[in-house]
Amino acid sequence: MSTPAALWTLFATLLIGLSYFAGVTFVLGLLWRLVGYLRTPMPYPAALTPAPTTDAGAAARVAGDVLFFPSLFKADKALWAGAWVFHVALWVILIRHLRYFTYPVPGISVAMSSVALWAGYVFGVAILFLFWRRLALPRALYVSGVPDYFALALLGLIAATGILTKYWLHVNLVDVKAFTLGLLTLRPVAPPAHPLFLVHFLLVIGLMLYFPFSKLLHAGGIFFSPTRNQPFDVQKCKKR
Question: Is 0.85 surpassed by the pTM of this model?
Answer without folding.
Answer: yes
